[in-house]
Structure formats: structure tokens, C-alpha cells
Amino acid sequence: MNKTYLIALMMLATPLAFSGEIVGKVQSMSSKGKVIQYLNPKTKEVNVLRFTDDTTLESAQSFSDLTVNTKFKATVNDDNIATHIKRILVKLPPEQVIDTDELSDLIDSGESRLFIGDARPVSVYNVGHLPNAQPTPATELAKNLDWLPKDKATMLVFYCGGVTCPLSSKALKIAQDNGYNNVKAYVEGYPAWKAEMYPSYVSPNWLQGNLDIHNVILDVRETAKMGVKGSVHFPTSALFDMHEKWNTEKFPVGKRTIFDVRDKKAPIIIVSTQPDDDEGIEAYEILTAWKYKNVSILEGGLLAWQQQDKPQQDVAPELTYVKKPKAGALYENDFIAAVKSNSATIIDVRDSDEVAQGKLKLSINIPLEDLEQHLDQIPKDGKVILHCAAGARAALAYTTLTKLGYTNVTYLDDNFSAIVKAAGITLI
């Protein structure tokens, strides 16, 4: 056999060892650290990849478009640095797509023959959904057509997690295949709805199962005695006054907090008498403007809660909130104890310009994007604590190190400056 022909035949029969391409779903991303943590949809493994200022983007205007759950395809080099990243967008004919403003106007019009289906998993729907939306998870819809209206002329609108989420288009196709002839997909989805500060809702049944210290249940009525069990009172009028005062002082919205809750991902459920009360909507808009990412309004309001005989008690004047534990996360008291006792190697993964404003005396500064080039400074046989400004880059660093075999590493999932200031720790 001809040698050249044999080599060519072998090349056809044997896949390349390294394709240079990955497909993932963004879990978190740091523009400063230039790192993306992603889930491999096939293997379900969590990995990280790096990018640079030279990384080209396709179907995205900036890296800020790579929000949580964004699906992407990337070309990477041998150093696991992405040279090209492309968002995998949902593509539908224009006549099958409805945008945010059109859907909002349709809802406001009170159109009775409108059905809004949330094509995401029910567990995701429960913690925040569009007004009047019904759970219709696309993965189960074909076997549960009774979820849809009997009148097949009803306008159906399906949505999911944004422009790269295929569930809305999948639900649309299922409905069309079963005789519904007025179906659209709200492709921009839940992230765009929230970005426009349109209200999001949670169901009373979900809240009843989550009356715990990991959720902020905020009663915004002007006067409140008896309310949802575990709720805390803070009237919208007081919230508005704070907002106006801070606007006058030009205090950054990202630093504004309620009850000193620094966790901007804290689930905040707003309770007013009825869900469309002005005080509830206004409180929602203010807290969303303050960059709280998971604000919702109790569906049906307190009136529906009481009618359904759900748990009530006296509304508290002070809040008790504790972040829901995450794998590898370290919280305020343990971090302070470790700093004061010098019982761990503390790695500061902030940028050098941030560190110049003040750092812990014994911490080691290794910017996130340089972490893998300085592993010799990070011991494998001792306790390691990672921190950044607010926790996002430290979490990415934690994923990177655990993937590299570090087993005694944790990260501060909190606001570094606020913690050291409250604890009286001097920075250098």
C-alpha cells in the first residue's frame, strides 16, 4: 500500500487529539480577571478559561454580554486562553419573536386571550417569573399539553433565560406542532425583563417552603403588624427617602444597601397588600436600581397569602439574613478570625491598582488572570483563603485551584472592604 495513502487513511480514521474548540454555559465571569467559569453541557463538569484584550467576540458587543447561563462556543489555544468566543444565539423568523416593550404593552393592555408560558425548569420559575406567567417547562411540555389553553387561537408567548436559551423556541415549536397558530417567543427573556426593571414575581407556595434566614421577606406597607411569617418591616416611603438622599449625595447605587445586606444576590421578596400596589412596585424598582439582582414581588400580595391561610406572625423591625452556604465559601467571622490569627495563607486576587488602595499586611497579591503562573506561591499543604473585592473573582480562583488539585482552599464570599472596616483591621 502506498505510504502516503496509508497516512491519509489513518488521519481520516483517527480524530485529532485537540480540537481547539469548547462549548459551554457561563456560570460566572470576571471582566477584571479575564476569566470565565463555565459548565460543559455534555459532561456537566465545571471548568474555567481565560481571555485577553485580543480575544475576538462574535454575536456579542462586549464581554458583559456573557451573562450567567449564556451559551457560547470558544476557540482556545494550548494555554487555555480563548482566541475567539461566539455566543450561540437562538434564531427564529422575525414574525415569531416579540420584544420586551411589546410584551409589556400587551400585558398592560389586559388582553384576556394571552397565555405566557415560562419554558424554564419549574425550580427556576419558582424563584422569579414574569407577571401572570405559568410554568410550562419545555422539556416536559410535549407530554403535558393540558398546561396550555384549550382555545388554540389564544396568543401564546414563551420565554426562558435569554437570547442563547433554546427552551422558548422549543416550547414554541411544540405548541405549533399541536395546532396552536398564534405563538411567539420572547427570546430576550427573563434577563432582559429584569434589566428593564419590569416586575418579577414569586409564587406563595414557593415562599411558604422558603421562610428561612436565607431569604429577605420585606414588608413595605406603611404600617405593618401581622404579616408573612419571617418578614421584616421597611416601608416604601422610608426606602424612597433613602434613595432620594443618596441621589443628592451622589452615593454609588451599587454600594446602597437595605439593612446592611451587602449580598447583592440576596433573594428579596417584597410584600405589599396586593402585588400591583404602587408601594410594592416602587420598592421593587428602587432595590433593583440598587443592583440587587434577585428582587421579586409576592404573587397575590399579602391579601392572597391570608386568604390561602399561609403562615403569619408579627412583622419584625430588624432583619436576620444569612447567605445560603456555597461550596468553598468562607464568611465574615471565619475570615476575620483567620486574618487576626494568621492561620492561613491569604491570596488577594484583585488587580494591582485595587491593591494600591490598601491590602492585608500578610496577604499575597496574585491577580486572578496571573494565578496559574504563580502557583509556586500558593502552598498545597496548608490552609489557603482567596479574596477579591466582592467575591466573584475569588470564586473563580477557587474553581481554578480545586481543578489543579488544591484541597484545602476556601474563598471570601463577601465585600472585603466592608468586612475589614467593620472589624477594625488596618490595611497597608
TrEMBL record:
Entry keyword Signal: yes
Pfam family, one: Rhodanese
Signal peptide feature range: 1-19
PROSITE patterns, alphabetized: RHODANESE_3
Key words, A-Z: Signal
Tagged with keyword Cell wall biogenesis/degradation: no
Residues annotated as domain Rhodanese: 110-202, 216-314, 340-428
Membrane spanning stretches: none
Domain of life according to the entry: Bacteria
Annotated PANTHER family: FAD-DEPENDENT OXIDOREDUCTASE, PYRIDINE NUCLEOTIDE-DISULPHIDE OXIDOREDUCTASE
Protein's UniProt name: Rhodanese-like domain-containing protein
Organism of this sequence: Vibrio gelatinilyticus
